Amino acid sequence: MATRFVNGRFPDGSPAELVADRGVFIAESVDGSEEVDLDGRLVLPAFGEPHAHLDKALLAERFPNPNGDLLGAIEVMRIGWSTIEPEDIVDRARRTVERLVAAGTTLIRSHADTNSYAGLKSVRSLLAVRDAVEPLCDLEVVAMAYPLTGPEGREGRRILDQALELGADVIGGAPHLEDDPAAAIDHLLNLAVETRLHVDFHVDEVLDPDFDTLMDLSRAVIRHGLEGTVNASHCVSHGLKPESEQREIAAALAHADITVVTLPRTNLYLQARGQHQAPPRGTVGVEAMVGEGVTVGGGADNCQDPFYSIGKCDPLETAGLLVSVCHQTPEQAFEMVTNDIRTIASRPQLDFRPGSPADFVAIEAESIRAAIADQPAGRTVVHRGRVVAHTTVDTWIAD
Ligand SMILES: [Zn+2]
């Protein structure tokens, strides 16, 4: 049955009266449609979370990371994986997805550790969650495989093959951590050619400006004919290079149609520990990237685990950091957590026109800026034309 959404408001102040049928907006109301009152809330495209680690979410209490840095977190999880049961992964991932959905997120891309420590339990569990939450949101599972080269490479490649056979949606890896980064990139891109899946790399999550995986990646993507199907996440070292070099690299990425995800929350936390004078921000050079035509999305990365012990499941938190840390306007930051994520995942844009997916969030805020500033909890979330979450907040203040 069609659903008619009334009493909403677009950011320009115009009334948002919308009709959805079979998952998309349609031009006119049809007989017998159900009515949903949006109660004057601001109607915005639904959020995307382009980079989660649902398999590790909510482990902060169980596996503390005393160093607070990236290598400390990797070490904690290397030992921790042996004690984690699949049911536990499913439970934490499901609860995290529900929090993301309640915040207005209907497209999530999550990495799943695919290595000799986690084996296949992470991929298998997240695929089960993907299928279970299908009515609430679109969840993409990335088989994040590392290492693929060096002494443990053979085992790594075997586990990745199995993960793809199980039905992982996206191929992932971390070439900058590999003994042979070029060989790892080649292996992952060859798999992409074979399977026709997208690839999402962890790239250069280090503060050394000499790390430059992006140039090699651009050339390799063109060589494999995979333009428009590859995303590079983190790219921390890029933000530490001179601006002319940032531009040169950005132009190469644009040429290869590679998209980028920056993760200010976690990289502010993990990087530059102990550097008390002028610590760097750990984000990609956003101005150079956007200036050269690269789509840059913003993500949260880890949520309350050894890689980031706090953090909400709310893309408006990421948008706020894109404003303060990356100096984007609220409107630019908002695009980076909504339709830019759709571009990265090759999904249709959310523009409220007939035929557009009926995915939106109606939020108790006056404007996009105010929504990012206040991050109000009061939200109504719609996925494929159906209300999937509704939150109201009552505040009482004494005279
Ligand atoms: Zn990550």
| Main sheet makeup | 8 strands, parallel
Bound molecules: zinc ion
Distance between the termini: 47 Å
Mean pLDDT: 96
Class derived from helix and strand content: alpha/beta
Describe this structure in words.
With 399 residues, this protein is an alpha/beta fold. 34% of the residues lie in helices and 22% in strands. The chain has 13 helices and 16 strands. It has helices at 70-80, 86-103, 121-132, 153-166, 181-195, 213-223, 243-255, 264-270, 286-291, 315-324, 330-336, 339-344, 368-374; strands at 3-9, 15-21, 24-26, 34-37, 42-45, 47-52, 105-114, 138-145, 170-173, 198-203, 230-234, 259-262, 296-298, 360-363, 379-383, 386-391. The strands form 3 sheets. It has an 8-stranded parallel beta sheet with strand order 6-7-8-9-10-11-12-13. It has a 4-stranded mixed beta sheet with strand order 3-2-1-4, with no helix packed on it. The radius of gyration is 21 Å and the shape is globular. The chain starts with a strand and ends in an 8-residue tail after the last strand. The model has no long low-confidence stretch (mean pLDDT 96). The structure holds zinc ion. Zinc ion binds at residues 51, 53, 111, 202, 301.
Provide tags for this entry:
single chain, 399 residues, alpha/beta, 13 helices, 34% helix, 22% strand, binds zinc ion
